[in-house]
Amino acid sequence: MKQLYNYLKAATEGEQKKEKKHDMEVFQKAEELAEEYDIKYDNESFVPDDDELADSVFEAGIDLLSSTGVYCIDTERIIPVDKDDILKSIYSLKELEIGKYREKVPVPERCPVDSTPPVIIGGPMGGTVSEENFLNVHLSSAREPLVQGIYAGVIDKLEGKGIKPKSPFEMYAALKEARLEKLSTRIAGREGLALMGPGTPTISQAYMLVSADELYSESDPQEVSQLDELKTDYETFYKSIYHQEHGNHYLSGQCPIFGGTSIASAPGLAIVDVAETIQAKIVTGASFHVSGAIHVNTNSSSTKEVIWASSLSSIALSRNMNYYKARYYWNQAGCCTDMMFYETAAQAIADTVSGRDILIGPAGARGGTADHSTGLESRFMAEIAHMATDLNLSEANDIVSKIYSKYKDRFTNPPTGKPFDECYVVNSEYDMEPTDEYINLYKSILSEIEDYCGL
């Protein structure tokens, strides 16, 4: 708590600066460091197999964070982050268990090509979900045995009406979301399954309202989203202070944008991803960090540049820092399409062999179209991750290259797919199954990936 207090003080006393200037400094410094450390993007690679390159990315990430600091948008000041403080903190680790009762899961601290599979978190993970399908969408993931937690979606309406942002209505929406998410675990017979979220609110009051034993307990990692590209705000501090005082697990999530205001290249993205992960640990104090980097042209996490950078940063962090790393999957295609499965497979293989500890999602249609999340998609992600534990980096790279060739030319016109209620036959909360079309497509793509993996 003392460290958090010191960074909050720094947010009110640090150097004043305009946000655009900070963005430009992050942009320029990341590119300078990429050149200084000779970090070059390999257009033929998806999963880098170069320990020296990974170590250079980690060093560059430390240099970026210590040179630019973290920008607080509420005070328009820089929070300086001392390099010595970074080096003191990177090797300490608080062991992480999520969920409770029979659903308690110890999160492994994985390394590259680790034989232990990553923890699998299903659910819409902040993607839009309709009010009428909210329970069933989450229930479909809770029913999957390989899913070890549920990450909430954003409920689109309350009593059929839109939810006014930053209003007390968000508190009612957060309560409904949390109660339905909790109910889904009970109907599935999995009381204690880890919950992550909430996904709907934008104000700290609503987040804190549902932080209670009967909704989100201390064993449920609660969401504290850092702002992208080495920024923070008072909302982040509000939630971090609250969770630390109450002994709750909380996650720090960020979605840096490749091609955006602060990231010009794949090496720059890898460096920023490392810097933001360190920020999550020492400035925000989160139990683990979730990266959800996306490409500015597609708003998806499944492009070649993003996969390469995310793999490289994960290897860098796994080799040089004791901390838990997770990743969001923002797929461009919709559910019940071959492209959606291919996008998930490429990312899950790359992340698993690169040492990610937790995989989250996937969300179809980039999370922007309602109800593009299903338990079958999360099951597929889990099965692919388990397959990938038998691969080395070179083998994984070759397989991801084959998978990527299946969808690389489809980003400009991705298949829209089908929403949840067209993917599942729902007779009741206790009787729901994927349609024959959906399950047959799943089996076909899974068999194809098994062939690639030599299984």
Describe this structure in words.
The strands form eight sheets. Strands 5-19-18-16-14-12 form a six-stranded parallel sheet. A three-stranded mixed sheet has the order 2-1-13. It has a domain of about 270 residues: TIM Barrel (Alpha-Beta Barrel). α2 packs across α9. By secondary structure, it is an alpha/beta fold. The mean pLDDT is about 95. A hairpin with a 2-residue loop joins β9 and β10. The protein has 15 helices and 21 strands. The chain is globular, with a radius of gyration of 20 Å. It catalyses: Co(I)-[methylamine-specific corrinoid protein] + methylamine + H(+) = methyl-Co(III)-[methylamine-specific corrinoid protein] + NH4(+). Belongs to the monomethylamine methyltransferase family. Keywords: Methyltransferase, Pyrrolysine, Transferase. InterPro entries: MtmB_MeTrfase, MtmB_sf. Its EC number is 2.1.1.248.
Please sum up the structure shown.
This protein has 455 residues and is an alpha/beta fold.
